[in-house]
Write a structure and sequence with these properties.
The protein is α+β, with helices and mostly antiparallel strands. It is 21% helix and 24% strand. The chain has ten helices and 22 strands. The strands form six sheets. Strands 3, 4, 5, 6, 7, 8 and 9 form a seven-stranded antiparallel beta sheet that branches. Strands 15-10-12-11-16 form a five-stranded antiparallel beta sheet, with helices on one face. α7 packs across α10 (384-394). The longest helix is centred in the N-terminal third of the chain and has 11 residues, at 74-84.
């Protein structure tokens, strides 16, 4: 099937490109049972939570509404697919089916309601043909609905309702009930963010019904609770949470010191922290990690009591993910009793490393250098909780004049 890309009547090509099993930065999204409009802007709001969205193309194929979404990194796309596949955008409808596309990148020629290149805001809008306008409208109407007899200025205006007042009034009570709230999965990811698409409740209707399209609060901040007040310090939190992303700021709450806010440089990093650290046992307490309602962590104002509980790490040399496309993204694992050690100088022996851990109160159960690369090794401790403590203490431990140990969690044991 030949598809029209970006609203050009003269440029026709097949953009689907097929799918594959291997992770890729381009996702193909099929939306099933679409009783409520899912616009390009809604898709952006959903996927932006997992990383930087570069481009989106939407289209109709086989009577289903589909989209291609390109993120900046394959890891972000992998996270998005794991979290969103088979989830409903709205209660009871608009189910996301997500696969990896074979396409390495998307070629977007026009910025309008069918396609968008977020890296190039200066692209022309392109005029949509009547056929394309009708295609967009029909894609966003309930099954069996008649097309409304009016046109849409898609190329020149922000997205508005795809449903005419007479169409909206005809929606069944079951459909309205199903669409009356965001699905529990998506609402649990964050509070309503306000996309400004209230036009889905057309003026002139007396029903008072509204389709919520306020999906996700995109935040780089996580709230950590149930911490051990005596042992949780900003530096310890920075090091532990830094395994999953570049921590910019840490704030332990002054009036509730078993709670802390941690700000990452990217929302996808916050999502990784939630995925891997929520409900882990640390200092004999099961900590909770969730998305925060805050979008930034504020430094204390001058004269405000803080007692050193808020720290800025924006310029820390210990960030693991500063380089775009860092390989560290592909080696992120949940806490385990086996630690991955790296940046080991060739002169350092197994005995030296084991003694360094022992001197700090951590007795290794097993140790193994990588066969082909003695810059890396695995070190096993008694349990996960002890490994968490050891990572916090031993990460950046000085091994030689210009060599500091790098510690992360290992995928496998020894």
């Amino acid at each position: 099937m030949s598809l029209l890309v970006g609203g050009s009547g003269s440029s026709q090509l097949d953009i689907t490109g097929g799918t594959q099993q291997a992770p890729n930065s381009v996702l193909r999204v099929i939306i099933e049972n679409m009783m409520v409009p899912v616009t390009l802007d809604i898709l952006y709001e959903i996927f932006h939570r997992f990383g930087k969205v570069l481009r989106i193309i939407t289209f109709n194929k086989n009577n289903t509404f589909q989209a291609l979404v390109q993120l900046s990194e394959a890891r972000a796309a992998q996270l998005a697919r794991q979290a969103l596949d088979n989830q409903n955008v709205f209660n009871g409808c608009c189910t996301l089916r997500i696969d990896y596309s074979k396409l390495a990148t998307l070629n977007v020629k026009y910025n309008n309601d069918k396609s968008r290149d977020y890296t190039n805001p200066n692209l022309p809008s392109g005029e949509l043909t009547l056929e394309q306008q009708l295609s967009l409208v029909s894609a966003n109407l309930p099954p069996g609905s008649m097309l409304p007899s009016f046109a849409f200025p898609f190329a020149s205006a922000t997205p508005t309702a795809f449903i005419a007042p007479q169409q909206a009034a005809a929606l069944s009570s079951e459909t309205l009930a199903a669409a009356s709230s965001v699905s529990p999965f998506l609402s649990s990811l964050g509070a309503a963010s306000g996309l400004g698409l209230g036009a889905l409740n057309p003026t002139g209707l007396n029903t008072g019904l509204r389709f919520p399209v306020t999906l996700l609060n995109v935040t780089s901040v996580v709230l950590v609770s149930n911490l051990d007040e005596q042992k949780a310090t900003p530096d310890a939190l920075f090091t532990l949470f830094g395994v999953y992303g570049d921590v910019l700021r840490v704030k332990i709450l002054f009036n509730k010191k078993d709670n802390a806010l941690i700000q990452y440089s990217e929302p996808q990093q916050a999502q990784l922290a939630i995925q891997h650290l929520d409900k882990i046992k640390w200092n004999e307490k099961v900590i909770r990690v969730a998305a925060s309602k805050h979008t930034t962590v504020q430094m204390p104002k001058e004269g405000q009591p803080d007692a050193g509980l808020t720290r800025d790490y924006a310029h820390s040399p210990l960030h693991r993910f500063k380089k775009p496309g860092s390989k560290n993204y592909m080696n992120i694992y949940p806490p385990s009793s086996t630690l991955h050690l790296s940046n080991i100088p060739p002169t350092i022996t197994e005995e030296f490393l084991a003694q360094a851990f022992t001197d700090n109160g951590y007795t290794p159960k097993a140790f193994k250098f990588f066969p082909k690369d003695h810059k890396m090794a695995l070190l096993q401790l008694d349990d996960v909780e002890q490994a968490i403590d050891a990572l916090i203490v031993m990460h950046n431990h000085k091994l030689a004049e210009n060599a500091h140990l790098r510690v992360s969690f290992s995928k496998s044991g020894i």
